[in-house]
Amino acid sequence: MCVFLLLIGCIVFAGCTDSTPSRVVSATPTTAATAPLTTTAMVQTSAATPVTPAAATGLSTYKNAQYGISLRYPSTWDVQEPDSLAMRDYGKSTINIVNFYSPGKETYAVFSVDIDPYSATDLESYYNHAVLALQSYYPHWTMTKHNPQMVVSENKAYRIDYKVEHEDSIKYDYAYQVYTIADKSPYIFTYQVQNIPPSDGTYNEYLDESQDMIKSATITPVSLTGKTR
């Protein structure tokens, strides 16, 4: 019940800074949790995790044993593994395991997977904290829908869809995030397209593929620190 009461209060209209379409994601690193957050480009890592092609279906399989995650993704998408710990827009310092980029140079979709190195057990509390953090981080943030009845790799999951209006333009960021906890390890999946006008169809073009990626995800929980927040 507290999820729905909180979410009713989270629907606000306020702005965010313009973002440049240079393959960046809103999961923004900072040097400290209290420092201002700025958007930075994710860098190509030198050695990506090997993938298994699935040519017949146009899919490849991504596997990361270190963080206990595997999923299928479109073979035409680029893969980067930042493996970076930083404060994110949802108010947690998490490790950005991998980013998948759809085809496109100026307008493209990004699908990211993060893991929280600190253990947690209360998904509802974790999700509520994230919603409040998103509302605070993006002044012109608007929740468009939510789903507290999802399942990811046999684990209960919560999803929130939202958009962010840019202050000095008619462009928006469109995104959704899915939160789940597998054996005390929180995982966060983010799908987004940044800096596009409402008439741009990129977000909807790759939406089904992103949702299939989540449906295909298999989580084998790992213990990173054993600490709790």
Structure description:
The model is unreliable at 1-22 and 24-56 (pLDDT under 50). The protein has a single domain, classed as Mog1/PsbP, alpha/beta/alpha sandwich (Protein Transport Mog1p, Chain A). It has three helices and twelve strands. It is an alpha+beta fold. It is 16% helix and 38% strand. The two termini are 23 Å apart. The longest helix is centred in the middle third of the chain and has 15 residues, at 123-137. A hairpin with a 4-residue loop joins strand 2 and strand 3. It has helices spanning 2-8, 123-137, 202-216, and strands at residues 51-54, 59-64, 69-74, 78-80, 84-87, 93-101, 110-115, 141-152, 155-165, 172-182, 185-196, 218-219. 35% of the residues are buried. Helix 1 runs parallel beside helix 2 (123-137). It is globular and about 45 Å long. The strands form two sheets. Strands 4, 5, 6, 7, 8, 9, 10 and 11 form an eight-stranded antiparallel beta sheet that branches. Strands 1-2-3-12 form a four-stranded antiparallel beta sheet.
Q: Summary?
A:
This protein is of the alpha+beta class and 229 residues long. The protein has a single domain, classed as 3-Layer(aba) Sandwich (Protein Transport Mog1p, Chain A), CATH 3.40.1000.10. Helices cover 16% and strands 38% of the residues.
How do the strands and helices of this protein lay out in sequence?
Elements: H1 2-8, E1 51-54, E2 59-64, E3 69-74, E4 78-80, E5 84-87, E6 93-101, E7 110-115, H2 123-137, E8 141-152, E9 155-165, E10 172-182, E11 185-196, H3 202-216, E12 218-219
Antiparallel strand pairs: 1-2, 2-3, 3-12, 4-6, 5-6, 6-7, 7-11, 8-9, 9-10, 10-11
Helix pairs in contact: 1-2
